Amino acid sequence: MKLYVSVDMEGISGLVDSTFVDSGKRNYSRGQEIMTQETNHVIHTAFENGCNEIIVNDSHSKMNNLLIEKLHPEAKLISGDVKPFSMVQGLNNQYTGAMFVGYHARASKFGIMSHSMIFGVRNFWINDVEIGELGFNAYVAGYYGVPVLMVAGDDQAAKEAEELIPGVTTAVVKETTSRSSGLCLTPEKTGELLRKKTKIALGNSDNVSPLVPPENPVLRIEFANYGQAEWASLMPGTVLEEGTTTVRFEAKNILEAYQAMLVMTELAMRTTFC
């Protein structure tokens, strides 16, 4: 069994604000340690329960956060930026299943550090389905026929996953109090939970179907201000919907929609506020 593990940072237990997830702030090195520990719990358990190959994709910010020297020696790590498919780089139809670790709720929703790729995004839609990073990544997995077996993160990420993916196993490592505070499990208890849930998820793999994306999906991104929408709409093939901050793109498949999202959000970040 070949397993794909995408690891974000905002959904890791104990990490509750930007000081833990921003490489220039004081708690970041602690965040790296805890992030690597949580990832190892999943890897160890997966190897003990039938997986013979595990690829881990560092999926936060510049995507070079996981401490490779402390990672399980038999795992392989995709690290660094730029990646053509960002949080799902390397995912293809050779995997039996995928797991998302350290995930958070989508933009504009209650949840610790909730957002969708950048803080200038209010909403993503694929056709009429509102999604965040979790949903978009699950759609890419589904394009390849790969089911998302487990999502670990805060309670709101778990709720989002359960609404999108019938049968998915969720591991709630912290409960949201506000966007920058939460009730967190200790690392020891988090480890116990992740090992238990990983084993359950692998045993339940036959009961989880891939989240199959629509053909010719329509991607719509609502930005926080008009300047961001203007920048994003410079990408060929996009339409800035009149009277809104929403940019629309008609894609040939979910892979094109995903890369369009990456380009549009990168362009949007060029907006200044002075």
Q: Widest sheet: strand order?
A: 3-2-1-4-7-8-9
Quick one: biggest sheet?
Answer: 7 strands, mixed
Number of domains: 2
Report the strand count: 12
Q: In CATH terms, what is the fold-level topology of the largest domain?
A: Rossmann fold
Protein name: Aminopeptidase
GO molecular function: aminopeptidase activity; metal ion binding
Binding site for Zn(2+) 1: 8, 10
Binding site for Zn(2+) 2: 8, 60, 104, 133
Written account of the structure:
This protein folds into two domains: about 1-115 and about 135-205, Rossmann fold (3-Layer(aba) Sandwich); about 220-270, Dipeptide transport protein (Gyrase A, domain 2, 2-Layer Sandwich), CATH 3.30.1360.130. About 30% of the residues lie in helices and about 25% in strands. It contains seven helices and twelve strands. The strands form two sheets. Strands 3-2-1-4-7-8-9 form a seven-stranded mixed beta sheet, with helices on both faces. Strands 6-5-10-12-11 form a five-stranded antiparallel beta sheet. Helix 2 (about 30-50) packs parallel to helix 5 (about 185-205). The termini are far apart. The mean pLDDT is about 100. It comes from Exobacillus caeni. This is Aminopeptidase. Keywords: Aminopeptidase, Hydrolase, Metal-binding, Protease, Zinc.
